[in-house]
Design brief:
The chain contains 21 helices and ten strands. With 579 residues, it is of the alpha/beta class. It binds adenosine-5'-triphosphate. The site of adenosine-5'-triphosphate has 13 residues, from helix 12. One of its GO terms (biological process) is oligopeptide export from mitochondrion.
């Protein structure tokens, strides 16, 4: 974690070095103040009756100038540190986001979205603040405490030794407190992540919550989660209260004892009033600095508590490669797909095998319809082809190349998908269509309109008051199922992929919509290798091959009229029946 943090802070090294320079200047000035203020007091007290106006004026004017410089240096330090901190937080966030996006799909099956969001927003801020602003305040406190102690010894060694005897026990208390706080922060952030996860999922799916009338139950669940966060916060508040109460009390007691002992020393003429004042001011500074150091320590512990989890995520190596492997040339890549003796189980349920010895061949440029009852693994075949998961054994090849050899990022640019319920992002229709291009920013409005036209989408889009600039709402909620499908088809057309993976909508579209979607799909399928999870007889009839998953359905299909019709009507078709 430390090396990772250093790497993230590295680009800020000059900013941080400059901040350290300003920190030194401002600390030196702050710490010389008590000494000179003592001199001013001595000028006033030790020359009774004499006219000390001139020397007092010039010393005060000089000190004002120096203090002004100190203030400017301190302000610059705060600015530099804060901006460096924010830059580090930004880098932490982007590094973490990119690390999350590169993880294999199984990771997202196991990790909850809300947790990741919480890490991304709250933990990064906590860690960033603790290693910059807090570090700078800590350094300042440390420097001031040590200079202050030195000056206390310089002014009065015996008084200094007396005062410092109370520091070691305080330090032990601070360390214990810091450890406790670190543990507490980790627990707080974890339970906060759970609460965020719950809120995110329920708000994101408010229609389902509403349909089941579960609002009150959900409120209670959320309240329970944040109640636990509150309990932890109470524990932290209690620890904090005890710690700061104790340090505040010991600070005051120290000042009181300095006054007492110093008063005695002054009485026996070992100290001037100016020296005692300087000493008191130094003791005060040291007290404040130690307070600063302890809050630095506790903040650092909090940051480290949050940072541990963050680093696990940042350093996690994806189990499937993200952008490695070979790419095929235009001539070699034709789009012939083959599953050979594939065995697969989802990583989250390794004991439940979805396929064993599964084989299927889809020649380049042909349409393969996939049918079978629910849960037999049709969507799983699509996921395997997209290389969202790897088979346990057996191979999946593209033009004879094992897809494990291919660069998944490249390979996915050659595959188009349209699912039953296509997911659109909450931006404009134009942006959603452009998402299909390798570089969406280069897509022209004409291209978008052209593919929308082919996908039978241009008509209804133009009927919207804002046309292609209409925002579709989260996950495309402001559109109908058929409209979403046609936008998804336009998006796939823009990608112009060699291989197409389609999941036909089961939800009943009205006749006109169904016709428009079907027509758009037919245009999309032209000249590509297509694997389609088919739910309609017409789709099966138009396919070059049909693969049936699950023996039960095969028996059912063969006994139905539809199947007979299908077998008669499609003389060039070949039916592959798989068990
Ligand atoms: N991410 C996952 N993790 C674990 N198991 C999964 C996952 N996705 C699907 N499954 C399981 O894999 C099996 C096959 O699911 P799949 O979605 O491929 O079936 P399907 O034939 O496409 O079904 P449907 O026609 O209902 O969409 C099911 O038993 C399902 O519970």
């Amino acid at each position: 974690m430390t090396t990772g943090l250093l790497a993230l802070a590295h680009p800020e090294r000059w900013r941080l070095t400059a901040a350290l320079g300003f920190l030194t200047v401002s600390s030196v000035i702050t710490m010389s103040a008590p000494f000179f203020l003592g001199k001013v007091i001595d000028i006033i007290y030790t020359n009774p009756g004499e006219d000390f106006t001139d020397s007092l004026t010039s010393l005060c004017a000089l000190l004002s100038g120096i203090f002004l410089c100190g203030a400017a240096a301190n302000a610059t330090r705060v600015y530099l540190m804060q901006t460096a901190g924010q830059r580090i937080v930004k880098r932490l966030r982007t590094t973490m986001f990119s690390s999350v996006l590169k993880q294999e799909t199984a990771f997202f099956d196991k990790t909850r979205t809300g947790e990741l969001i919480n890490r991304l927003s709250s933990d990064t801020a906590l860690l960033g603040r603790s290693v910059t602003e807090n570090l700078s305040d800590g350094l300042r406190a440390g420097a001031q405490a040590s200079v202050g102690v030195g000056m206390m010894f310089f002014v009065s060694p015996s008084l200094a030794a007396f005062v410092l005897s109370v520091v070691p026990p305080l330090a032990v208390v601070a360390v214990i407190y810091g450890r406790y706080l670190r543990k507490l922060t980790k627990m707080t952030q974890d339970s906060l992540a759970e609460a965020t996860q719950l809120a995110e999922e329920r708000i994101g799916n408010i229609r389902t919550v509403r349909a089941f009338g579960q609002e009150v139950a959900e409120m209670e669940k959320y309240t329970n989660k944040v109640d636990y966060v509150l309990q932890l916060a109470k524990k932290e508040a209690l620890a904090r209260a005890g710690f700061f109460g104790a340090t505040g009390l010991s600070g005051n007691l120290i000042v009181l004892s300095v006054l007492y002992k110093g008063g005695l020393l002054m009485g026996s003429a070992y100290m001037t009033v100016g020296e005692l004042s300087s000493f008191l001011m130094y003791a005060f500074w040291v007290g404040i600095s130690i307070g600063g150091l302890s809050s630095f320590y506790s903040e650092l512990m909090k940051g480290l508590g949050a940072g541990g989890r963050l680093w696990e995520l940042i350093e996690r190596k994806p189990q499937l490669p993200f952008n490695e492997g070979i790419t095929l040339s235009k001539d070699t890549f034709r789009g012939a797909l083959e599953f050979k003796d594939v065995e697969f189980a989802y990583p989250t349920r390794p004991e439940t095998s979805i396929f064993k010895d599964f084989s299927l061949s889809i020649p380049a440029g042909s349409i393969m319809a996939l049918v079978g009852p629910s849960g037999t693994g049709k969507s799983t075949i699509v996921s395997l082809l997209l290389r969202l998961y790897d088979p346990i054994s057996g191979t999946i090849t593209v033009d004879g190349f094992d897809i494990r050899q291919l660069n998944p990022l490249w390979f996915r640019t050659k595959i188009g998908t349209v699912s039953q319920e296509p997911i659109l992002f909450s931006c404009s229709i134009a942006e959603n269509i452009a998402y299909g291009a390798e570089d969406p920013s280069t897509v022209t409005a004409e291209e978008i309109q052209r593919v929308a036209e082919i996908a039978n989408a241009a008509g209804f889009i133009r009927d919207f008051p804002k046309g292609f600039d209409t925002v579709v709402g989260e996950k495309g909620i402001l559109l109908s199922g058929g409209q979403k499908q046609r936008i998804a088809i336009a998006r796939a057309l823009l990608k112009n992929p060699k291989i197409l993976l389609l999941d036909e909508a089961t939800s009943a579209l009205d006749a006109e919509n169904e016709y428009l979607v079907q027509e758009a799909l037919d245009r999309l399928m032209e000249g590509r290798t297509v694997l389609i999870i088919a739910h309609r007889l017409s789709t099966i009839q138009n396919a070059d091959f049909v693969a049936v998953l699950g023996q039960v359905v095969l028996a059912q299909l063969q006994s139905t009229e539809e199947c007979e019709k299908l077998q008669k009507s499609s003389s060039p078709q070949k039916h592959e029946c798989l068990s």
